[in-house]
Amino acid sequence: MERFYLHKQLNGHLIEDQKGLRFANEEAACRYAVRRAAAFIGKARDVADTHLGIEVSDGSQTRCIVKASIVFEKP
């Protein structure tokens, strides 16, 4: 099992993952990041625009980046 770090960016604020999580491989870590982004969007309660990024890193290289946005528009 490899350790991967999931650094989050929320509306321009970086939250670095210091502990990381163990996954069987890079693909499993990236799939987990997609699920985490979807879960975050499902919990959003603010009507302001929200931009989220989750960078999956092995500690030395970025392996994937998941980006999600909620954009609130009025007609």
Estimated radius of gyration? 13 Å
Number of strands: 5
Kindly name the structural category: alpha+beta
Alpha plus pi helix count: 1
How is the biggest beta sheet arranged? 5 strands, antiparallel
Shape from CA axes? elongated
**Residue share in helices?**
10-25%
Secondary-structure element series: EEEHEE
Beta-sheet strand percentage? 35-45%
Mean pLDDT comes to: 90
End-to-end separation in angstroms reads 49 Å
CATH architecture assignment:
2-Layer Sandwich
Description:
This protein is of the alpha+beta class. It has a single domain (2-70), classed as 2-Layer Sandwich (Alpha-Beta Plaits), CATH 3.30.70. 24% of the residues lie in helices and 43% in strands. It contains one helix and five strands. It has one helix at 26-43; strands at 2-10, 13-15, 21-23, 50-57, 62-70. Strands 1, 2, 3, 4 and 5 form a five-stranded antiparallel sheet that branches. Strand 1 and strand 2 (13-15) form a beta hairpin. The longest helix is centred in the middle third of the chain and has 18 residues, at 26-43. The radius of gyration is 13 Å and the shape is elongated. The termini are far apart. The relative contact order is 0.27. The model has no long low-confidence stretch (mean pLDDT 90).
